[in-house]
Amino acid sequence: MAQDYFKISKDEIHSTGFKIGVFVLFLLACIPVFMSYLGMKEIFFKNAPEWILIVYFCLGIFTVFASIGIYFLKKFAVYLYAFMVFALYILFLLAYNIELQDTIFTLFIFIGFGLLLIIPRWKFFT
Question: What pTM was estimated for this model as a whole?
Answer without folding.
Answer: 0.83
